[in-house]
Automatic annotation (TrEMBL):
Species of the source: Mycena metata
UniProt cross-references to InterPro entries, sorted A to Z: BTB/POZ_dom, SKP1/BTB/POZ_sf
Record's protein name: BTB domain-containing protein
Source species, domain of life: Eukaryota
Lineage of origin: Eukaryota, Fungi, Dikarya, Basidiomycota, Agaricomycotina
SUPFAM superfamilies from the UniProt entry: POZ domain
Length: 203
């Protein structure tokens, strides 16, 4: 069954401390239409996506202007995530990630890795470090899956004392098994209550 794509085309507003940034997702001269998983259409310029994303650059021939303006590329990310991600592909003030709620931010972080949007990654990593205290499991999972060793080794120490249920809910299977083997068992079965005595590194 074909997916029904919304005809909604919006202007998304982002507030920053310094100014009001308007990001137009309905560019009049766009040559590429992308739909989010929740059916919001983004009218974009393929040249910007190809320059700022290795994945879109490699897929430059997947859709062509000659195919017509009605062709739509459907992505698995929500509109809230894409609203932020696409800003990193245009020459404009970048979004203030401090104003993005964590669930959306986590999606942006994953999308930046997935589509290789290198312009977004430095800001993502800085923000991830700020979440070490409040979302240690989610930060650990992100860092472990994408091989950010320093971030993972810092995050894992903030997970000491968390339950198996919490870890199982927030960690991917491979990260969860490693966390149980290296940290959970040491903490609960061997009485290593002082984090400095825990095994050295997670990665």
């Amino acid at each position: 069954m074909a997916t029904k794509i919304s005809e909604r085309c919006t202007t998304v507003t982002f507030l920053s401390r310094a100014s009001l940034n308007i990001f137009l997702v309905c560019a009049g001269d766009s040559d590429l239409t992308i739909s989010s998983s929740d059916g919001v259409l983004f009218k974009l310029h393929r040249k910007h996506l190809e320059v700022h994303s290795d994945v879109f650059a490699d897929a430059e021939n997947a859709t062509l202007p000659a195919n017509g303006a009605d062709e739509v590329v459907v992505l698995s990310e929500t509109s809230s995530v894409l609203d932020v991600l696409f800003q990193y592909m245009y020459r404009q003030p970048q979004p203030n990630l401090q104003l993005v709620e964590f669930s959306v931010f986590a999606g942006v972080a994953e999308a930046a890795e997935k589509y290789m949007v290198y312009s977004a990654l430095p800001a993502v990593l800085i923000r991830m470090r700020r979440y070490l205290g409040s979302y240690p499991l989610q930060v650990l999972d992100y860092a472990a899956r994408h091989n950010y060793k320093d971030l993972a080794n810092k995050a894992v120490r903030s997970t000491v004392g968390l339950t198996l249920a919490e870890a199982g809910k927030n960690l991917s299977p491979d990260t969860f098994l490693k966390w149980v083997r290296i940290f959970y068992q040491n903490y609960f079965f061997f009485g290593l209550h002082i984090t400095e005595k825990l095994p050295g590194n997670f990665l």
